[in-house]
Amino acid sequence: MTFASFGLPVPIAKGIRAAGLTEPTAIQSKAIPVIMQGNDIIGVAESGSGKTGAYLIPLLSRFLDRSIRLRGIILVPTRELAAYVETRARDYARFTDLKIGVVYTGSPLAAQERQLRDEPIHLLVATPGRLLELHARGVLNFADVEILVIEEGDRTVGLGLAPDVRKLLKLLPETRQTLLFTLTMPPELNRLAKEALVEPVRVDVAPIAARPAAGITQAIYPVPRELKFDLLDDLLSRTEVRSTILFTRPAPPRSGWRASSSATATRSRCSTSIRTRASASARWTICVAGVCRSWWRARRPRAASTWRARRTWSTSTSRRRRRTTSTVSAAAAGPTRWATRSRS
Ligand code: AMP
Question: Angle at the Cα of 133 (from 131 to 138), degrees rounded to 5?
Fold first, then answer.
């Protein structure tokens, strides 16, 4: 299949060619015709499969022909994904006059409100909470919305955003077309899909067992609890480790912080400017929850007064210090020394 077989408008065909898309990927080949026919869809595909193009290309093609009104909304779980989808949309629409907006939690509300009032748009990429806030302020009119996309549905419900999505469903026109993209189908998403979609066509291009993308190796390091920060420290200080995202459980400290001389660390509740600065630096770490807190404590034992008084500190520190040498040498030996299971 080729992009030409979809009969795309010339400016969109030109835009995707300029963005380097030559042949449709599997999800694009299957989903674009279904979406262009006006069906609701559940697209099961992983990140990097071309799923952003799978919904953006038909959306942008459809919005070309009429006046500027808000006609499409793409709901995303995170501001990073919002920024990514907006960039892709602008890429594909670069030879059109389509107006694309993006709003997400964590950026000043007033600026987004002013921009939406000043510049009408065809397509809005948004996180659910911020979209509700802006709607409550009377900035957005949903009356002309024809298409709703729910991106990364599994992550959306995993982050507890299903109630916000449900509120939005009540505010949007019932006659809309709804597209859901996800890699997995947890029960909560299944319930949400039943409320949001009408007779959806299911398009599934996910691998049988979800594997990491090509070039990614996964490894598990079984490690005693008291040694894991030393191991983490050792892994992150290796020269081949340039950019790191740590997913952990409880929340790390409130402000942005430096984890080491060479790594900027930030976290999910950090301001956008800190996150942007962190991701722009040559070597960075993003911490999404709390191992970092303990890791940071372990690295900076005298710097934080809030935890110094903890009864357990002196015991755990001396235990950790005693065992540092063996941890680091075991980590240096590589994952196999740690009974690693890896898939590629
Ligand atoms: P996506 O999953 O849509 O975010 O795409 C992941 C990456 O694959 C992006 O860098 C896209 O530019 C690229 N990509 C998407 N569709 C195609 C395609 N049909 N041909 C080549 N690259 C693509």
Answer: 95
Please, are residues 239 and 332 in contact by the beta-carbon 8 Å criterion? no
Distance 166 CA to ligand 1 centre (A): 30
Cα 131 from Cα 218, distance rounded (Å): 36
The pLDDT value recorded for residue 287 is 56
**How far apart are the CA of 46 and the centre of ligand 1, in A?**
12
Which tokens sit at 18?
């300029």
Tell me, what's the pLDDT at 153? 96
Is any ligand 1 atom within 6 A of the Cβ of residue 256? Answer: no
Contact 288, 246 (CB under 8 A): yes
Nearest CA to ligand 1 atom 23: 21
Task: Give the closest residue to 12 by CA, choosing from 27, 32, 26.
Answer: 32
263: helix, coil or strand? strand
Does the C-beta of 24 come closer than 6 Å to ligand 1?
yes
Q: Which of 3, 21, 60, 90 to mutate to test the pocket of ligand 1 (most atoms within 8 A of CB)?
A: 21
The token pair at 165 is: 């999505």
pTM metric for this prediction: 0.67
How many CB atoms sit inside 10 A of residue 292's CB? 26
Most confident of 166-170, 213-217, 238-242, 322-326: 166-170
Mean pLDDT of 222-235: 81
Cβ of 15 less than 6 Å from ligand 1: no
Percent of residues in the chain assigned helix, strand, coil, to nearest 5: 45, 15, 40
CB count, 10 Å around CB of 175? 8
Q: Mean of the per-residue pLDDT values for the chain?
A: 78
The answer to whether residues 134 and 84 touch, using CB atoms and an 8 Å cutoff, is no
pLDDT reading at 320 higher than 60: no
Q: Answer for the pair 109, 130: CB distance below 8 angstroms, yes or no.
A: yes
First to last CA, the chain: 28
Q: Which helix (H) or strand (E) holds 283?
A: none
333 CA distance to ligand 1 centroid (A)? 36
Nearest CA to ligand 1 atom 16: 50
Res. 292: pLDDT tops 70:
no
